[in-house]
Amino acid sequence: MEKGYETAVGGDNSSRFSHMGSSDGGQQPCVWSSPQGGCKIDIRKQIFCNRSLNMKSILAVGFDMDYTLAQYKPETFESLAYDGTIRKLVYDLGYPRELLDWSFDWTYMVRGLVLDKKRGNILKMDRHKYVKVAYHGFKELSKEDKVGTYGNTLIRDSFDEPDYALIDTLFSLAEAYLFAQLVDFKDKNLEKIPKGADYSVMYKDVRAAVDLCHRDGTLKQMVAKDPKRYINEDTTIVPMLKMLRDSGRATFLVTNSLWDYTNIVMNFLCGSRTLDGGRKCNFDWLQYFDVVITGSAKPSFFHEGNRANLFEVDHESGMLLNTDNGSPMAQGGSVGHLHKLLSIESSSQVLYVGDHIYGDILRSKKVLGWRTMLVVPELEREVELLWELRDTRKQLRKLRNERDLIEDKIHHLKWSLKFEDTSADEKQKLSSEYNALESERDRVRITHQDAQRECHKMFHKIWGQLMKTGYQNSRFAHQVERFACLYTSQVSNLSLYSPDKYYRPSEDYMPHEFDIIPL
Fold it and tell me: How is the cofactor bound (predicted)?
């Protein structure tokens, strides 16, 4: 528990893509409260609403740190995590040394995938949990294998633990990629894999290696030495926090990272500098928060019944206070304690911003009833492509409707040929028409499938659009819709809106409404 200044505890593209709210460190941030604020917001920076949220009812805004306030660079940070995990597998868990020569493609995996631990498969499914894309290691499963494995069972699989692992955080991308590499390696070099290591054991070993990297501090020691190499600078974070506090709201930080690392990262993000422009490490950033909780052990922190010990941190030394002869005093380190520190009477008065659907959003919403905002960095590229491909997507809908129309005609002709009493000449005419329609259907189907595949690859060469699987919302999108009141690409996008804004969702449409209500 860390105590600070107050209380701290451990149309055309140009119109759509303006440059408001720069986070590259090069432009002056244009926050809502500034004289230049309040203008149209770049679609990539917009906040999207699933459930109505009136910010006037929010008394406290809380933040996660890792991948929320601190956006890590995947090309450096994820590669660092990957390399550390490889070394643990080789030196601690007995895997062959040739793994040390492997490399990591940080662009390959995406969030929302599901790992089938028993079969060594990586799956992408829609919101109904139907598997739409499936790979064994890096080899795509045929449609027949996919249906035979996941579509021909009497009882639907839940695709949950313990047989499956959800890739729902950016931290998980490196381990998913490594798991796929190990699956391929095992299939080709069975004798080189530790004895008894099937696919599920290999996944368990990868998880153990990742945990070892986090426990021994390897990753965070490297980040602490050179934060700029691993973390994106965002000059709008401090103005955002100032604006929220000036509006009368409390702000708090709840992170699983420990105090020493949190202090380094928050110093970097809040821009403490010396007179010559170099960075200095101090505690000035604490002025932007009413409460700071480090080492929170989320998601268990969100349970009222959690009675973890609570300590106060000495800023300078990092030593834990509130101890009695080495034993912690009987304080309950849980969310209930946080509510008291913030003088919160109702959990719906809290907005919590995080990046992890399970650890941050689902638990805080379902268990506590907090309002939630999910940070989805991938959204910037996703909405930009959606805008660029809007004409292509209209054409895809047109082709799909054309397929439906032709198939309806084929079904009617087939029925007529089978059941109607017609002359031989009439049957010959109907048969010719039937054959012509079948040829036309095949042509339109191939055109449609090829166009859809190309559109799919524009978002990602393997997994396609993050929020879609075919024409359905992806499982990831379904979780975002269920558990996040708001979602956006960067936490600092909050700085572009009034702190008293009333966020309203768009109207829900059901299939029977689309052709009736103009969109």
Answer: Binds 1 Mg(2+) ion per subunit.
